[in-house]
């Protein structure tokens, strides 16, 4: 399978093409739009979410609610484009009124301008914007539906918001409760404390990041590879999570904690109990670059959003004079959305790894081959 996306934050639309889906996968469009609604929700979101009401349009690859085996094309139209048409048209337009030269620390502005020979950061930030993740979430739901048809499930929650931690230990079935809270935490006391922290940061013109956890249940062993480093499942998952805007760190299982423990405290002993099993899961479901049949456990850290209402010090790209960074419409905290996006990124990687191993032109073939795996 392969996913390609296109589109700018204030352009006409966001687009995705998903290649390699087998025929006869039932597509639930309501679930796609449900995931998009979750991405737009959460405590601390900005005004853009009130303008857009994201809905996915399937342009090709589906007929009668089932995939055809051809590329599936998705579209999310930007309602805000009507207000930006004069500045974002593909023909003649006003290139100066919305120009950005006071580059923002922590954003793609400066590096992108230097790389692509631009004098206006608008030509960088429009694509680098997290708005792009809306179409990835829509495509991610397609991948999730493929996995669900095979019995593979994905869930997650927010573990930390700007230093406020949810220290609970939750079973997979408990994670769904996080989608009913403002910040994606499960412990109500941690949620309240985190909301207070975000509110204080908003008053100060500042922003917040956090840490999310995503889990995969039902994936059998052997997906990924120990033979070539590029095919290691954990490497691919880490790359996908780091590909999310504002991601700054990823860990698998106990992750960085394993560097401070002994071997006996880190490695999961193996038992045969009607099949090979591990009674602990410190490895996070991946050993030697391959799934081992246990729950996959991933965490990703999101930095605070780099667009601050009270901008940081910077230099103007054209005049080189000291300035305050430009302020685009932004969120104070988007950790709830980040978790939804992280689930979509994980779904893409797992679905691609599964499809590579199973093949199959139809869902019946893929399901039969998956069922035969030990």
The largest pleated sheet is described as:
5 strands, antiparallel
The number of distinct helices, counting runs of at least 4 residues, comes to 11
Gap from first CA to last CA: 23 Å
Strand content: 15-25%
Number of strands: 17
- Overall structural class, as computed from helix and strand content, comes to alpha+beta
* Parts with pLDDT < 50 across at least 5 consecutive residues: none
**Sheet with most strands: strand arrangement:** 8-7-9-15-10
Order of helices and strands: EEHHEEEEHHHHEEHEHEHEEEEEEEHH
Report helical residue fraction: 25-40%
User: What radius of gyration results from the CA coordinates?
Assistant: 22 Å
Molecular shape:
globular
Provide the residue-averaged pLDDT.
95
